[in-house]
Specification:
about 110 residues, alpha+beta, Alpha-Beta Plaits, two-stranded antiparallel sheet, globular
Length: about 110
């Protein structure tokens, strides 16, 4: 299994969540986060917004679903067909073990 962490614009999170649900991946953990990417924040006039609001989506999936899930996220989160700075980032990591809390079983 793998863990996909997608950091997306807050206004795009509902679209991404809907796309994942419709693609057969309803299990997603979502949380509000703040940060900055390569652009180092946003400058509007004399004001610099060093940390911008984003949404972090966590999706645990089978390795074989990786490419499909990543494509689904990119298509739903991209600003337009070419994308824009600040659209987000996707990180993929292996999951070593999982346990179900209710019964304590290792999956």
């Amino acid at each position: 299994m793998i863990l996909v962490r997608a950091i997306v614009r807050p206004e795009k999170a509902p679209k991404v969540m809907k796309a994942l649900f419709e693609a057969g991946f309803p299990a997603v953990t979502k949380m509000a986060v703040f940060g900055r990417g390569k652009q180092r924040g946003l400058k509007v006039g004399n004001v610099v917004y060093d940390e911008l609001p984003k949404e972090l989506l966590l999706i645990a999936i089978r390795d074989t679903d990786k490419d499909f899930v990543i494509t689904t996220i990119i298509e739903a989160a991209r600003t337009d067909e070419h994308g824009a700075f600040g659209d987000g980032k996707i990180f993929v990591s292996p999951i070593v073990e999982t346990y179900t809390i209710s019964n304590g079983l290792k999956e």
